[in-house]
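Working notes for the structural subgroup meeting. M.R. asked for a predicted model of this chain before we commit to crystallization trials. I am recording the input and output together here so anyone reviewing the notebook later can reproduce the run.

Input as submitted:
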Amino acid sequence: MSGHSKWAKVKHFKGAIDAKRARIFAKLSKEIAIAARLAGGDPGMNPRLRMVLLKCRSANMPNDNIERAIKKGTGGGETVQYEDLTYEIYGPHGVALLVELSTDNRNRTASKVRSIVTKSGGSIATPGSVSRLFHRKGQIIIPREGADEDRLMEVALEAGAEDFKADANGYEILTEPSNFEAVHKQIEARGIKPAVAEVTSLPTVTVPLTGDPAVAAVIKLIDALEEDDDVKEVYSNAEFPE
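Returned structure, recorded in token form:
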């Protein structure tokens, strides 16, 4: 993923927080409750919960909301069973998307996703045709003013990072998923605060978008998917202009 794509991602996430704070907090609360129900409310013993809490911190989600969601997940009062799904989608202009969901009704979710994709001029892809265009990586993004480049690179690589990239905006550190937590902990131990820190799906090949109609069509589809309550993450290989 090129530099301006990842920084566009940071800006998009921060903008979404400002515009849709209540919806994002509701989704994060659901993810917390599911994670806590599956493996307990102690982040030290629950990797899935730890990952959700990183998202909560990036979103500035209040601690009271987090604690309520953990109690809901561990309280035993709710018997709804959720399952994780991944949809592979071809969107407008040849863009590929991976969509991760948690749902208590597979048929309802399938109907909603197909409707969103069809209305946006896309199609559901055959399993494997889109996922092969992405790889799972730990990704840590740090603004340039947040760290000294040489020191950050030394800390990251010594902790087990796979790659370190720098550009005018800042730094991107990539890890294998299994090494993500070790690298992230070493960076934060130095008082460095990432703008993004997550295990994500990054495209191996990107699709450059040129012209407002193409950009608008792809963003419309991504926004529509992210609006759905069952959707956790939307990954795309779109290369947006600056």
